[in-house]
Design goal:
This protein is α+β, with helices and mostly antiparallel strands. The protein folds into two domains: 223 residues, Alpha-Beta Complex (Spore Coat Polysaccharide Biosynthesis Protein SpsA, Chain A); 85 residues, Alpha-D-phosphohexomutase, C-terminal domain (TATA-Binding Protein, 2-Layer Sandwich). Helix content is 30%, strand content 24%.
């Protein structure tokens, strides 16, 4: 499905059709074709509507990209299911895969197809866990993975889960018999509810990997950044270079007969260390080996753990009780600063 105009992306794309928006040097639709080829799919029927010329000129018959493409250009809006209905003479009588030509993902599509074959459902949806699902359609599956209902673009009071429909489906041809010829029909708002009303099964498969609906400038730039970082696996992109961890320098030993050690878990160790440094700076703190406080009779150090998000507090003196009291005072101080950070009141 490659007929979208991408109105929200026009500040980035201008008149360029959305499937031609580049993702690390190649159009989104070419990235989709790469994914299909990787999963053994090379016969495609593409539905177009908005500004189809640049897309057809770029891909031609698909031979240069290792696929065979048949084009269908809509003269009037047919919706997602209506556009696919116009391709049934090409798709034949076997289950077929539907996907958008303007989304970025690296799903194992073979696994989705295998799930559809096992389930015997009319349609199998690729579902994705999403922390911010307001822009998408929610699917609510039961314990067996069969979808019981859909909630289209809910507001937060109506969010009942985090599984969104990605617009990637495996469809049995019999399901398309409910779609009228030449009329507008949408998968999410028309066909799927009708299938459920008739008692047909719609299965949801929760997919692993990366998926992004590149529908807004923010989503587009985030997708490009994710591809550069290797979160979105593209076949022609080398894995991101591993960053060698900094060599850990051992702390100097604190001088004192009695050393008290504490640890304090926190959400952001670097930010809490910043707050501790600012608070202790006027007390003459040193910063070359963690945050160090020294006097003639005692010494204390606050430093972040190298392994976990926590602060390590050490206090040393000649008196064990004083060491414990000093460590407790610094721990209480760190806790108070951490609470302030959580409330947005700290640095």
């Amino acid at each position: 499905m490659a007929g979208g105009e991408g109105k929200r992306l026009k500040s980035v794309t201008g008149d360029l059709p959305k499937p031609m928006v580049p993702l690390l040097g190649k159009p989104l639709m070419e990235r989709c074709i790469e994914l299909l080829l990787k999963n053994g799919i090379n016969e495609l029927c593409a539905t177009l509507r908005y500004n189809p010329g640049p897309i057809m000129d770029y891909f031609g018959d698909g031979d240069a990209f290792g696929v065979d493409i048949t084009w269908r250009v809509e003269t009037q809006p047919l919706g997602t299911a209506g556009g696919v209905k116009a391709c049934m003479d090409v798709l034949g009588d076997a289950p077929f895969l539907v996907m958008s030509g303007d989304a970025a993902c690296d799903f194992d599509l073979r696994a989705l197809i295998a799930s559809h074959e096992r389930s015997g459902a009319a349609v199998t949806l690729a579902l994705y866990e999403c922390r911010e699902p307001l822009r998408y359609g929610l699917a609510v599956p039961d314990e067996n993975g069969d979808v019981r209902c859909f909630i289209e673009k809910p507001d937060w009071p109506h969010v009942v889960g985090d599984l969104v429909s990605t617009g990637i489906y495996v469809v049995s041809p019999q399901a398309m018999e409910l779609v009228p010829d030449g009329a507008a029909c949408d998968f999410a708002s028309d066909l799927f509810p009708e299938l459920l009303r008739r008692g047909e099964r719609i299965h949801g498969e929760v997919m692993e990997g990366y998926w992004c609906d590149v529908g807004t400038p923010q989503a587009y730039y985030q997708c490009c950044a994710d591809a550069l970082a290797g979160k979105l696996r593209l076949p022609d992109q080398p894995p991101p270079a591993a960053t060698a961890p900094a060599e850990s320098k051992p702390h100097t030993e604190l001088k004192g007969e009695h050393v008290e050690r504490r640890s304090l878990g926190c959400a952001d160790r670097a930010r809490l260390m910043r707050a501790m440094s600012a608070s202790l700076m006027e007390c003459g703190a040193e910063f070359d080996d963690g945050v160090i406080l020294r006097s003639g009779n005692c010494c204390a150090r606050i430093s972040p753990s190298a392994e976990n998000s926590e602060l390590l507090i050490e206090a040393a003196s000649r008196d064990s009780e004083f060491s414990a009291e000093l460590a407790s005072a610094l721990e209480n101080m760190a806790r108070a600063l951490d609470r302030g950070i959580e409330r947005g009141q700290g640095t």
